[in-house]
């Protein structure tokens, strides 16, 4: 008996009942918080906590869903992003709508100063100088033009193309792009003529480009026009850089044109050759009206496309070649003889041999590009006269349209003319 009773005392393990109790206690200690939480959730307060957690999850899901929907909407309607930026600028300016608010430099012209001839006539309008804040002005109106372009194309011009029977999405996009260009330059062309009429350059007076040099300040309408045009070309550069428009056959020439144009705008403004710049602006703006209009009319098969196209060729030759060749000739002659001809950084006299070479090189490059496009215009006219122009009967699907396009575009592409299909047939008539 003694042997049997001593065995439990010498054993290192507790009796089964004690071991089970210890395990239960350890499990309760480890699972205590969970059981308490579970118990709490079974009570009135626990149910409320669970309900709050569920509501938070629903709100987060709803917020993510709204963000995704907004992202999809913004991607489809590309005018939304610039609109938001414009609203933010407007709100920031509304906080303190005075000149002391830095945001006003983005929205309004900077560097107001008295008219240089105010001592002769106090009623003369104020002038505006130049400075770094002008970059902010250009940046803001680049956003404005981005919003305007996308809104007009998506909400007005593409539906207008559909109304006029354009079924292919690719052609609707092309039509909208050209209509926007025609509308923009229809506004800016006459504006430029008005601004030029208030300057010594009227009517393309080349001597007025160099008289009273340097032209360091301008009237408000002159400066606004010049910088607003700079914003347009900056915005067009963004469109090209981001690939918003599908590249055409003359994409390389179009890129070169944008680079030369932006260089001319920036350098002419910085070094006070703005009187020459406004003449170059006008010669290209007015010709672009007829060019874009002829392309737009082609997309809707209008009977007016031929007379507008022929008018475009005459306007193109007169403005982009005759007038610009006169300007180039003046750079070789009057540039040196009219007004000062020296380099002086202190007095901002930049009309010298260096600027003479740079100005001539840039404008000659622009002239070479225009001659290339003139050749394309004449080539298109030749094909219209000699060959039969068959009606565009390509598939409605954008994929088939784009696949067919490389073999069916004799007319100038890019920023220059519309696309047509040609089929040799002597003596036949058609439509551009």
From TrEMBL:
<feature type="transmembrane region" description="Helical">
    <location>
        <begin position="78"/>
        <end position="95"/>
    </location>
</feature>
<dbReference type="GO" id="GO:0050291">
    <property type="term" value="F:sphingosine N-acyltransferase activity"/>
</dbReference>
<feature type="transmembrane region" description="Helical">
    <location>
        <begin position="304"/>
        <end position="323"/>
    </location>
</feature>
<feature type="region of interest" description="Disordered">
    <location>
        <begin position="1"/>
        <end position="57"/>
    </location>
</feature>
<feature type="transmembrane region" description="Helical">
    <location>
        <begin position="131"/>
        <end position="148"/>
    </location>
</feature>
<dbReference type="GO" id="GO:0005789">
    <property type="term" value="C:endoplasmic reticulum membrane"/>
</dbReference>
<protein>
    <submittedName>
        <fullName>Sphingosine N-acyltransferase-like protein FUM17</fullName>
    </submittedName>
</protein>
<feature type="region of interest" description="Disordered">
    <location>
        <begin position="393"/>
        <end position="432"/>
    </location>
</feature>
<keyword id="KW-1133">Transmembrane helix</keyword>
<feature type="transmembrane region" description="Helical">
    <location>
        <begin position="224"/>
        <end position="242"/>
    </location>
</feature>
<keyword id="KW-0808">Transferase</keyword>
<keyword id="KW-0812">Transmembrane</keyword>
<dbReference type="GO" id="GO:0046513">
    <property type="term" value="P:ceramide biosynthetic process"/>
</dbReference>
<keyword id="KW-0256">Endoplasmic reticulum</keyword>
<feature type="transmembrane region" description="Helical">
    <location>
        <begin position="353"/>
        <end position="378"/>
    </location>
</feature>
<keyword id="KW-0472">Membrane</keyword>
<comment type="similarity">
    <text>Belongs to the sphingosine N-acyltransferase family.</text>
</comment>
<feature type="transmembrane region" description="Helical">
    <location>
        <begin position="254"/>
        <end position="272"/>
    </location>
</feature>
<dbReference type="InterPro" id="IPR016439">
    <property type="entry name" value="Lag1/Lac1-like"/>
</dbReference>
<feature type="domain" description="TLC">
    <location>
        <begin position="170"/>
        <end position="386"/>
    </location>
</feature>
<dbReference type="Pfam" id="PF03798">
    <property type="entry name" value="TRAM_LAG1_CLN8"/>
</dbReference>
<dbReference type="InterPro" id="IPR006634">
    <property type="entry name" value="TLC-dom"/>
</dbReference>
<feature type="compositionally biased region" description="Low complexity">
    <location>
        <begin position="37"/>
        <end position="53"/>
    </location>
</feature>
<keyword id="KW-0012">Acyltransferase</keyword>
<feature type="transmembrane region" description="Helical">
    <location>
        <begin position="181"/>
        <end position="204"/>
    </location>
</feature>
<keyword id="KW-0325">Glycoprotein</keyword>
């Amino acid at each position: 008996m003694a042997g049997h009773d001593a065995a439990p005392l010498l054993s290192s393990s507790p009796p089964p009942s004690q071991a089970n109790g210890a395990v239960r206690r350890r499990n309760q200690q480890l699972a205590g918080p969970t059981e308490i939480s579970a118990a709490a959730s079974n009570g009135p307060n626990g149910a409320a906590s669970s309900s709050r957690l569920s509501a938070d999850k629903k709100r987060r899901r709803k917020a993510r869903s709204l963000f995704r929907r907004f992202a999809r909407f913004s991607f489809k309607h590309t005018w939304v992003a610039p609109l938001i930026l414009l609203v933010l600028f407007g709100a920031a300016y509304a906080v303190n709508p005075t000149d002391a608010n830095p945001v006003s430099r983005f929205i309004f012209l900077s560097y107001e100063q008295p008219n240089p001839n105010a001592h002769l006539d106090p009623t003369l309008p104020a002038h505006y100088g130049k400075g770094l804040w002008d970059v902010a002005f250009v940046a803001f109106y680049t956003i404005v033009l981005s919003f305007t372009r996308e809104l007009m194309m998506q909400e007005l011009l593409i539906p207008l193309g559909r109304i006029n029977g354009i079924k292919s999405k690719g052609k609707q996009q092309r039509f909208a792009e050209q209509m926007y260009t025609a509308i923009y330059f229809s506004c800016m062309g006459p504006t430029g003529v008005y601004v030029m009429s208030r300057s010594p350059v009227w009517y393309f007076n080349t001597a007025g480009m160099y008289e009273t040099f340097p032209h360091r300040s301008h009237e408000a309408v002159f400066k606004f026009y010049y910088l607003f045009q700079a914003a347009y070309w900056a915005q067009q550069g963004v469109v090209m850089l981001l690939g918003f428009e599908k590249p055409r056959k003359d994409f390389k020439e179009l890129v070169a044109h944008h680079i030369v144009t932006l260089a001319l705008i920036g350098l002419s403004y910085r070094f006070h050759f703005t009187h020459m710049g406004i003449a170059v602006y006008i010669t290209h703006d007015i010709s672009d009206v007829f060019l874009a209009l002829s392309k737009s009319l082609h997309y809707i098969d209008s009977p007016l496309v031929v007379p507008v196209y022929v008018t475009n060729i005459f306007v193109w030759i007169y403005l982009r070649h005759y007038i610009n060749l006169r300007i180039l000739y003046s750079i070789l002659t009057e540039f040196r003889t009219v007004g000062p001809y020296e380099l002086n950084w202190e007095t901002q006299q930049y009309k010298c041999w260096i600027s003479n070479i740079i100005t001539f090189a840039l404008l000659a490059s622009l002239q070479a590009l225009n001659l290339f496009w003139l050749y394309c215009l004449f080539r298109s006219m030749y094909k219209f006269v000699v060959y039969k122009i068959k009606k565009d009967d390509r598939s409605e699907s954008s994929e088939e349209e784009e696949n067919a396009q490389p073999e069916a575009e004799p007319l100038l592409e890019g920023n220059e003319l519309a696309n047509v299909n040609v089929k040799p047939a002597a003596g036949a008539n058609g439509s551009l």
